[in-house]
Amino acid sequence: MNDSDSNEDSSGRDRLGGARLWMLLRVNRWAFTGAVLSLVFVILVATSQIGLTPLREIVENQDGLEFLFSAFIGAIITGTSIVVTINQLVLSQELGAIGDQRDRMQTSMQFQRDVEDTIDEDTSPPEPAAFLYELVDGVQERAAELEAEMEDERDEDLREKVAQYVAELDDNATEVKASLENAQFGTFDVIWSALNFNYSRKIYDARTIRDDHSDSLSEDANEKIDHVIDTLQLFGPTREHFKTLYFQWELIALSRALLYISVPALTAMAIMIMYVDASALPGTTLGVDNLVWLTSAGFVFGIAPFVVFIVYILRIATVAKRTLAMGPFILRESEREEDLG
After folding, report:
1. Rounded CA gap, 315 and 23, in Å?
2. Per-residue pLDDT tens over the stretch 3-59
3. Which residues form a coiled coil (predicted)?
4. Which residue, among 212, 199, 132, 128, has the nearest Cα to 169 in the 3D structure?
């Protein structure tokens, strides 16, 4: 799964938490796994050069290889079985009687019609990326209508606040729409773009403008602000729905990845136990005992399923933490400012 595209600009990375978080979320899971395993391999090989007891001596006197690698076999089998079982429990939510499935279908269709009525679209796109694009575009249009309504407003402070609000919303929406244009569900692109649209803060700002200037706003202006808020409110459940689908998609990918890598890892463990002892591969390569190279590679194979599990769950957990609150609540300090009270 190719999810390492990095064509987003720095503003998106800054709003979502900086380069570190961008790396944790956007880097291809297999590339991330390879980087972690490579680091472990380098550390193991380098450790053999700092004057500790030679590995060959440990293997000869304590039979360390069999003790180490036999433990991996049980851990790999047990861990893979548990993850696949958890995955099946999650996917069991998709199973149900026809009445339940019909209710889900009707609820989904009703929500789609609500979005279409709010953004004045006859038929909304079925693809998640295109659906989010149209919803964000609808927010932009409602904001533009609000700004147009304020052109003849006598309250200069109100007019400036609305203009600033619309400008910030437009910049964010334009950035999100650009990232959604070529996004494909199943990659992280759609969720990344949804995370980059800070609708919670926009709802708060719109409500603040309405409350602070309730005496100055005309009935039409109030209606326009309500329309902006109503459209923004649809973004929350939309994002949560696509996030749930993505989590299920990602858990399936995790299960497949573990199944792919577990058999080679078990085979490598069997080879290390059955055919490698203190007399294997005598000599050195690049100044390092050949047994160190072989054992380090074997250890990396052994922990590969665990690392794959970590890098997948890391992204799922990170996204879940950053989307705990749906609606006008802001949990992250990066989206808070002094004027929040």
Report:
1. 10
2. 433 344 444 444 455 667 777 788 888 999 999 999 999 999 999 999 888 888 888
3. 129-156
4. 199
Give the number of other CB atoms < 10 A from CB of residue 212: 13
CA pair distance 291, 55, nearest whole angstrom: 7
H or E segment at 252?
helix 219-275
Inter-residue contact 192 to 144 (CB < 8 Å): no
CB 270 within 8 A of CB 77: no
- Structure token digits, residue 68: 């180490």
Are 110 and 161 in contact by the 8 Å Cβ rule? The answer is no
Q: What is the pLDDT of residue 170?
A: 92
Domain total in the chain: 2
Q: Please check whether residue 1 lies inside any domain of the structure.
A: no
187 pairs with which residues across the strands? 185
CA angle (187 as vertex; 1, 265 as ends), nearest 5? 30
175 and 66 inside one domain: no
Do residue 171 and residue 36 come from a single domain?
Answer: no
Cα dihedral 292, 295, 299, 301 in deg (nearest 10): 120
Q: Global pTM? A: 0.78
Give rounded-to-5 percent helix, strand, coil for the chain: 75, 0, 25
Mean pLDDT of 194-221: 86
User: What are the pLDDT digits (tens) for 155-200?
Assistant: 788 888 889 999 999 999 999 999 888 787 767 888 888 888 888 8
